[in-house]
Amino acid sequence: MTTGYQLPKQIITLDFEGTDWEGAEVKLRRSISLDTYLFYQALDVKKLDGNAQLLKEALVKFGDELIDSWNLHDDAGEPIPADGEELIALGDTRFSLTLLMEWRAHTEARAREASPNDDGPLEELSANGKQSAEPPAPMAPSSRSQRRSKKRS
Known about the structure:
By secondary structure, the protein is mainly alpha-helical. Helices cover 46% and strands 9% of the residues.
C-alpha cells in the first residue's frame, strides 16, 4: 500500500530588525489557494486607503488566511491571537499594511523565480535534478477544439 504525499507547509518569516517593530516576528503562509493568491495580487493598497470598509475586510481576510503565527503580546503580556480581527485591532495600521506588502513582495519574487521562461528554478525543482531525455509528449486536442475544427470544415 502506498502512502499519500502531503505538500510541505511553506512559511515566510518576517524579521523586523532595524525597524520600529524590532523584536516582532511574524510567520506568513506562502502555501495558499490560487483564489487567495489572485485576490491579494489584484489588491491595490493605495486605493484601499480611501475605502475603510474594503481595507478592513482585506486585512481581516489576510489575518485569517495568511498569518500563521506571531510573537505579539498585549500590554498585560498576554499573547495576542494571530487572526484577522486581532490584526485590525492592533492599533498600528502601518504594521498591518507592512505585513500585507511584505507578503506580496515575497510571493511576487517567488513567482518570478518560478517563471516558465526561466530554465533555472525548474531544473532545481526536478525530482532527481536531471531533465528527461525524451521530448515532452504532445498534448491531445480537447474534444471542444476538435468540434470547432469540424465546424470550420
